[in-house]
Amino acid sequence: MKPVPDLKNFGESTLLGSFIPGDQEAPPASSRTNMFDACHVGVVLRAVLFVEAVTGVCVMFGAREPLDWLLSFSLLTGGVLPATLAWLIAVCGLKERLNRLGPSRQWAAGIALGAVSGLYGCGLLALLGLLQPVPWWASAAAGALLSALMLAGLFWRAKARTPAATAARLAELQSRIRPHFLFNTLNSAIALVRAEPAKAEAVLEDLSELFRHALADPAESVTLGQEIALAQRYLAIEQIRFGERLQVQWSLDANADQAKLPPLLLQPLVENAVRHGVEPSATGAQVKISTLRRGSTVVIKVTNSTPSGAGERGHGLALANVRERLALLHDVEAKFKTVFKDGIFQVRLEIPA
């Protein structure tokens, strides 16, 4: 028999292959588009780069040579950058109130904040004596126009998180549980009813909890602690089915439990580890789930040993789906890695704490 690879010291590898088709993302619970969600690092970086790019192009019209352009661009950046950051801070700080407004008032408020920010940047340059004469009206108009363009970007970003045309399909996909997993679980419970009724009751309770989460109204995010509890119930069911073939290791950091994840993200990863690691192996496999908080980042790993070779290779569609779900929730602050090394598969996620 081929020995099961040891997961103890396996660090940086991650899972290749795919998840079960149909384990897709759930749409956010709220039907109102979160238009002012500018509190992400990625959004701030893109907004600053966009405004600076527009400023640089506009300066080109009055520059006779590259050095003139560089001097003028540096001068304007002293006002444009603080104005842009002021607009982003205001939008982020007031997003709860702004999102409660009607659509037309949202646009009006965002554009008005842009005009005020433009005046703020112009005022900074005027105080330093760098603008003569001071273009107050032009600065307010430029701030309003740029804020309208940034609001359009935020609006379409929010729309991408809540695609109305596919919301019903995604909710249906979320509620799927593989039929053969359901049948195997029920058969296991039936076999235990007379011999070990308490264990049969526990299996049915775990199955009921899995269905409750799968069929619940989709939410934008849940805590890592909730996802861990759901994965534990799933593995408790599979432990009845596979017995000693399924060797589970947990390494959990309680300080990481409050990190946010898209709902029903961890359980399919664990299910995939069982499917590709334990099911095809006559000798069984190890599955290890670990969480660790490192400063402002939480690292999540789902690792499994595999039979000889890489096992059944999927299409990778669900992996792309997980990457997209993490990006929609955490943008550039989330990382997703997949590696196969020395007979070990692992999924590694990094998310904000």
Q: SSE layout and pairings?
A:
Layout: H1 41-60, H2 66-93, H3 95-99, H4 103-127, H5 136-161, H6 167-174, H7 179-195, H8 197-215, E1 222-223, H9 224-242, E2 246-251, E3 260-261, H10 266-278, E4 285-294, E5 297-305, H11 317-330, E6 335-341, E7 344-352
Helix pairs in contact: 1-2, 2-4, 4-5, 7-8, 8-9, 9-10
User: Quick check: average pLDDT?
Assistant: 79
Give the spatial strand order of the biggest sheet: 2-4-5-7-6
Largest sheet: 5 strands, mixed
The total strand number stands at 7
Radius of gyration equals: 26 Å
Spans where pLDDT lies below 50 across 5 or more residues: 12-32, 164-176
Helix content: 40-55%
The ordered string of helix (H) and strand (E) elements is: HHHHHHHHEHEEHEEHEE
How many helices in DSSP terms? 11
Overall geometry comes to elongated
Distance between the termini: 42 Å
What portion of the residues fall into strands of 2 or more residues? Answer: 5-15%
Class from helix and strand fractions: alpha+beta
Descriptive notes:
- With 353 residues, this protein is of the alpha+beta class.
- The chain is 55% helix and 13% strand.
- The radius of gyration is 26 Å and the shape is elongated.
- 34% of the residues are buried.
Structure in a nutshell:
55% of the residues lie in helices and 13% in strands.
Question: What attributes characterize this protein structure?
Answer:
two-stranded antiparallel sheet, 353 residues, 11 helices, alpha+beta, 7 strands
